[in-house]
Amino acid sequence: MKYLTVTYLPLQEPVPVLGEFLQLYSVRNPGAAFSLGSEVTWIFTIALAVVAGVIIWKAFGLRSRLWAVVLGCLLGGVLGNLGDRLFRDPGFPVGHVVDMISMPWMMPAIFNVADIFIVTGMISVALLVVFGLRFDGTRERDHVTVETEEQAEAVAVAEAEQRAAESQSAETADDAPAGGAAPTAGGR
């Protein structure tokens, strides 16, 4: 989308898509939202690089598909804007981000698809945390809070016993004959 914007969209001229509801408006943003902090763009570059690194590092321990999708969207948005900061004019690491989407009826900001992914990704992260979904796919309510080492050992023993019992019942169910009827002597 940024390539198409830079190649075909006139700079700082509104192009109506749906009238005043949605317009394309190509600008180069030197700062963050609403061009704030344009004199310290290098700080945004460092922050984006750190966020991308943390997401990639956390991805190795993910067991939840929902977390994977959310963090993937967030990473895509971060990398989209980080690429602009690193490789666009006026140069490394203070490049201006290409923005092109304008919705004047809603807000005066002009943003890009990467910004949409970042905002929705952060909202989704907050919701996943509030609802207690962990990276391993379990929920917060599935975990027991312990305060002492003795409690932790007792919980670990109880969980091991529960897993053993579940394994034993699964093996017993696998050994049962199909159809639910037990075999009788003499075939009757």
From TrEMBL:
It is an enzyme of class 3 (hydrolase). Residues 158-188 are annotated as: Disordered. Its main location: membrane. It holds the Pfam family Peptidase_A8. Keywords: Aspartyl protease, Cell membrane, Hydrolase, Lipoprotein, Membrane, Protease, Transmembrane, Transmembrane helix. One of its GO terms (molecular function) is aspartic-type endopeptidase activity. Its EC number is 3.4.23.36. One of its GO terms (biological process) is proteolysis. Belongs to the peptidase A8 family. This is Lipoprotein signal peptidase. It comes from Microbacterium oxydans. The lineage of its organism: Bacteria, Bacillati, Actinomycetota, Actinomycetes, Micrococcales.
